[in-house]
Amino acid sequence: MAEAHERFMKTALGLALRGIGNTSPNPAVGAVVVKGGRIIARGWHRRAGLAHAEAEAIKKAGRRARGADLYVTLEPCCHHGRTPPCTASIIGAGISRVFIGILDPNPRVKGKSIRELKRAGIEVRTGFLEQTCRTLNEPYIKYITTGRPFVTLKLASTLDGRIATKTGESRWITGIEARRYVHRMRTRADAVMVGSGTVIKDNPRLTARLSRGKSPVRVVVDTEFKTPLSSRVFSSRGGRVLVFTTEKASKRKIKSARDKGVEVIVVQGAADGVSLKRAMAELGQREVTSLIVEGGSTLAASAVRQGVVDKIFYFISPMILGGDGLPSIAALGIKNLGKGIKLSEVSIKRLGRDIMVEGYI
């Protein structure tokens, strides 16, 4: 029977993945209704404001839901938000048993839904493929418990850790497969962040052009707001743009940017520029649950030094440029190996000719 539980929950997880990138600030959730040992209905949360996974699956099951089992990756909601509570749908449909991947860490939900279902006479069991369910919604979990986004630092370099030659040439260090993967990452994230140096040097759009899906909110960190407003990142066609700067920025430049539709946020400075912790709090207030920090080397070092990074994706190209090339990450001031940044839960994947290393800080 344990094998069947895992199989049904895996199906629910696969459904939940379809919503990644579209449900924020809500979690991505999948659900299946099972009767007589087979799935009779499927559902997933497609977009914030639309029906939740459980409600969609139960609606598809119709009268057949009475006496059936429900498998859902996250504890159902029990409160009114953008949609009615899922517990009401479950109870009203006559579901017999509910199998849950993980509890919802939202204080408005955590454990309350389970107690409500049990009071209605429904058997509830939890902890199925728990780690996988948690990883699926790590941005939501961090956001709902801290009010700040889950931050992924993306690095890409040669074997010897260089992102450009001594003359500044950098296109392209990695191959097309790696670049497509990064664009898929963008479609799943709420926002992508770069430093002003990257914008001035590379003039990127920061949109998801190599993968189908939405483009993220674009965020520029610029201590003195030196980035030209003619830069492609400020194009209205790419969507919303935010700039984090400090009181060192020209008030005239800030006004010009705001007149152009750019959201400029003045935050306190840090020893190495903008306070990224303050920036993360501001992004959280704007319901940004996931953020990719893409570069350059100075911003990457600041993000690590200021302790805002949760996870790293490092793309490595089988190329060597030598010590006179630009390093992938600026100085961190580490004096001994014991203080080095260590990754846990490391996984490695090949993307064409490149290698991707993924791990948590």
Architecture overview:
The mean pLDDT is 93. The longest helix is centred in the first third of the chain and has 16 residues, at 2-17. The chain has 361 residues and is α/β, with parallel strands linked by helices. It has 11 helices and 18 strands. The strands form 4 sheets. It has a 9-stranded mixed β-sheet with strand order 11-10-9-8-14-6-15-18-17, sandwiched between helices. Strands 2-1-3-4-5 form a 5-stranded mixed β-sheet, sandwiched between helices. It has a two-stranded antiparallel sheet with strand order 7-16. The two termini are 37 Å apart. Strand 8 (191-195), helix 8 (196-202) and strand 9 form a beta-alpha-beta unit. It has helices at residues 2-17, 53-61, 86-93, 112-119, 130-136, 138-146, 176-188, 196-202, 251-259, 276-285, 297-305; strands at 30-35, 38-44, 69-74, 97-102, 123-126, 150-158, 162-164, 191-195, 217-221, 241-245, 263-266, 269-270, 273-274, 290-295, 311-317, 326-327, 344-351, 354-360.
SSE blueprint:
Blueprint: H1 2-17, E1 30-35, E2 38-44, H2 53-61, E3 69-74, H3 86-93, E4 97-102, H4 112-119, E5 123-126, H5 130-136, H6 138-146, E6 150-158, E7 162-164, H7 176-188, E8 191-195, H8 196-202, E9 217-221, E10 241-245, H9 251-259, E11 263-266, E12 269-270, E13 273-274, H10 276-285, E14 290-295, H11 297-305, E15 311-317, E16 326-327, E17 344-351, E18 354-360
Parallel strand pairs: 3-4, 4-5, 6-14, 6-15, 8-9, 8-14, 9-10, 10-11
Antiparallel strand pairs: 1-2, 1-3, 7-16, 12-13, 15-18, 17-18
